[in-house]
Write a structure and sequence with these properties.
The protein is of the alpha+beta class. The protein has helices at about 10-60, 115-120, 145-160, 175-200; strands at about 5, 60-65, 70, 75-80, 85-90, 95-100, 105-110, 170-175. The longest helix has about 50 residues, at about 10-60. The termini are far apart.
Length: about 200
């Protein structure tokens, strides 16, 4: 893997961008029709929705390099060396199982929804890694979980084939302090704004 591979779910990113644009239009409309008072009254809930769209759908990612897989979720990131990985699966999402028993799921690579999964056929997973009886709809090509898991399994196999060292306990978890702080602030502001609007309603 000469260059890092970064994975984000296209559908989620598109929805988030649309939501953020609509929120921006909403703020501008409030400013034009209701002035500063309108923005102060309803701006906080709109900004909170835009921020959550970014934090939940755009910020999460899966990044793979020759040395590790970096799983960035909403509030935490996990940098897992290939040498600390015991196995990889896609049951609920791309999930990395480490040598010490930790299970790290990727928010950016969820399994398909039940409706889509029920509509899949055996042929949809016939070309995916694994034994026939153990393949799931979440392994299917074209799904977020399936595509990310296939890439991770290929990279892990290459690391082991090239004689990469075992690195048990090498996983590093980092909390997204700023993301947590901003989320708390915007949600609190939105709740206060809605409460004041209801009191004056």
């Amino acid at each position: 893997m000469p260059h890092p591979v970064v994975f984000r779910p296209r559908g989620g990113v598109i929805l988030a961008v649309v939501a953020i644009v609509l929120c921006g239009v909403g703020i501008v409309t409030l400013a034009v029709w209701n002035g500063v008072a309108g923005v102060l009254e309803w701006g906080a809930p709109i900004l909170a929705f835009a921020w959550l769209s970014y934090a939940v759908y755009i910020q999460p990612s899966v990044r793979m390099t020759e040395g590790f897989i970096d799983i960035r979720n909403v509030f935490r990131s996990h940098r897992v060396p290939w040498g600390d990985i015991d196995s990889v699966d896609s049951r609920y999402a791309l999930t990395v199982h480490t040598a010490d028993g930790r299970h790290v799921r990727a928010w950016a690579a969820p399994a398909p929804a039940a409706r889509r999964a029920l509509g899949m056929r055996r042929e949809d997973v016939s070309g995916t890694p694994g034994d026939g009886d153990t393949r799931r709809p979440s392994d299917a090509v074209g799904t977020e979980s399936g595509d990310a898991t296939a890439l991770a399994l290929a990279a892990l196999a290459r690391y082991r084939r090239d004689g990469g060292p075992a690195l048990p306990g090498g996983t590093v978890t980092t909390w997204h302090v700023w993301t947590i702080a901003v989320t708390v602030v915007v949600l609190a502001a939105a709740l206060v704004s809605l409460a004041l609007a209801a009191a004056h309603g």
